[in-house]
Design goal:
It is built from 16 helices and 17 strands. The protein is an alpha/beta fold. A nine-stranded mixed beta sheet has the order 15-14-13-7-12-11-8-16-17. Strands 3-2-1-4-5-6 form a six-stranded parallel beta sheet, with helices on both faces. It starts with a helix and ends in a 15-residue tail after the last helix.
Length: 455
């Protein structure tokens, strides 16, 4: 059963009454689908490996999953069994996501495919009348972000980007944003985003495609290339797939499908930095690659070697942000964000928040409601709960496409600057590189024939 208009009105009336009384509603009461079995939204997940199952598993508490889709029949089958066990109801299985979008009973889709598929599925889902939760990084190019913004506005769909640091991680990041916004380090002068580096790869040979994988459909909008893999298997997170390949898990290390560490961890930490700086509606003026290592040779911004990983392994990038703030994005040092201002500094990551301004909170706490003010209301139980609350209110959630795309532009531009080997000047109003036609040619990418976006 889909969410009824009556329930939506009741939910909004309840929220309005609570706000008028100054009451913070318990987090567990605000995701309506979790409270009322007959009004639980109906979801489907497209792309199920690793993070796809992770966001699905977190969402059983709030929604019913009617369908799952994946191009790998082994991954699809395993997750159908897990979902059946978790929700005591077996979802339908699809190898083609378009069959999910055709279903009128599905309210929303969760998308956790490789990055190069995000925009096509997201746009088509919105035109099919679905609200969308899509994993980060949202796009492969800057122009894809503009297209998604246009379609969100045109269709009125609710769209949550999966940058979970805005809702989870023990509220450390919300506290960090509140510290900056409440002047606890004075005027911000510098912010350093440590996002870690990566290793290159050995030569990865072309081999036979695993029989369970529809590799052509996995490639989708990307160019047709041979399937590559070495026999050694990956352990731990991302296990069950080759350690080196141009497909499952390792797609992040290829510009054809993703953007390396810049769009993987950068999409998390640069996001929090921009949020704290109040730069979610604007962008940088200059992006300069101070130091960087590309694992293969490039010519005119494109790799000339096609059998090895090609995203940057090490880097130090300087970004000129509004109000004379210097942002450094680096592969060195501790993973996390260091904020430095005229009156102090502190560091935050998923495990800790440290520094004198944090210690001073014992004697001088943040004003009451400071965290809620950052979040825009009572903090949701998790990212899915916030998404469902937004589905009821028909307002955009905590991680909206506009703020996400603005910060992701920094990550995309950093990659372009390294690929071309020069600094870029950026016009945040026109959203284009100033005086550099070649660099601007990297803001978009044409989909492979047969995989154009259906609009």
């Amino acid at each position: 059963m889909t969410i009824s208009q009556q329930s939506r009105r009741q939910f909004l009336q309840g929220m309005a009454a609570a706000g008028a009384a100054g009451i913070v509603l318990p987090n567990t009461n605000r995701a309506m689908g979790y409270e009322s079995p007959n009004e639980r939204p109906v979801f489907a997940t497209i792309g199920l490996r690793n993070q796809g199952w992770g966001i699905t598993n977190k969402s059983f508490k709030f929604a019913d999953f009617a369908a799952l889709a994946d191009v790998d029949e082994n991954v699809l089958g395993e997750n159908i069994e897990k979902a059946d066990k978790a929700q005591k109801k077996r979802p339908d299985a699809y190898s083609d996501y378009r069959k999910v979008l055709d279903r009128k009973d599905i309210d929303a889709v969760m998308i956790a495919t490789p990055d190069h598929w995000h925009t096509k599925i997201s746009v088509e889902a919105m035109y099919a009348g679905k609200d969308v939760y899509c994993e980060k990084p949202l796009t492969l190019t800057i122009d894809e972000g503009k297209l998604i913004e246009k379609v969100v506005k045109e269709t009125g769909r609710v769209f949550q980007v999966g940058t979970m640091q805005r809702s989870e991680s023990g509220q450390r990041f919300l506290q960090a944003v509140a510290l900056v916004k409440n002047g606890r380090i004075g005027t911000v002068k510098k912010v350093t985003c440590g996002i870690g580096g990566m290793s290159g790869s050995p030569v990865i040979p072309a081999v036979a495609v695993p029989k369970e994988l529809d590799y052509d459909f996995w490639l989708g909008p990307a160019a047709e290339v041979p399937y590559r893999a070495l026999p050694e298997m990956r352990k731990g997170y991302g296990g069950g797939v080759p350690l080196y390949s141009n497909c499952h898990y390792s797609f992040r290390n290829w510009h054809e499908y993703s953007g390396g560490k810049l769009t993987d961890w950068g999409a998390h930490h640069v996001d929090i930095a921009c949020w704290a700086l109040g730069a979610t509606e604007t962008g940088p003026s200059r992006i300069a690659p101070l130091e960087y290592t590309l694992p293969v040779e490039y010519k005119d911004g494109y790799p000339v070697v096609h059998d090895q990983y090609n995203t940057a392994t090490k880097f130090k990038i300087q970004v000129d942000m509004p109000n004379d703030v210097e942002m450094i994005i680096t592969s060195e040092g501790d993973n996390g964000i260091l904020f430095e201002g005229t009156e102090g500094r502190f560091f935050v990551n998923r495990g800790k928040i440290t520094g004198t301004p944090v210690e001073d909170l014992k004697e001088n706490p943040l004003p009451e409601g400071a965290i809620e003010e950052v979040y825009g209301g009572p903090v949701s139980e998790n990212h899915t709960a916030n998404f469902i609350e937004a589905m009821h209110s028909r307002k955009q959630p905590i991680s909206d496409v506009w703020s996400h795309n603005r910060m992701l532009e920094i990550c995309h531009l950093s990659n372009i600057a390294m690929r071309l080997g020069r600094e870029l000047k950026w016009d945040p109003a026109k959203r284009e590189v100033v005086g550099d036609e070649q660099a601007n040619s990297f803001l978009a990418r044409e989909n492979r024939k047969g995989f154009e976006i259906n609009m």
